[in-house]
Write a structure and sequence with these properties.
Length: 53
């Protein structure tokens, strides 16, 4: 499975993307579409996200 040619547009077409856009948070969709931009993976521990060691 490859990366969509325009991942932001693809996410905007989905229900969650449209909901975020409708609530005035289009930047959240842009962040969700980023590829290879983070060197850490957040892990949910004790009810909060933390970086993995």
């Amino acid at each position: 499975m490859g990366v969509a040619s325009d991942p932001v547009a693809e996410l905007h077409r989905g229900d969650s993307g449209r909901e975020l856009y409708g609530y005035g948070h289009p930047q959240h969709v842009v962040v969700a579409a980023e590829v290879d931009t983070s060197e850490t993976v957040p892990v949910l521990r004790d009810g909060a996200f933390q970086e993995t060691p």
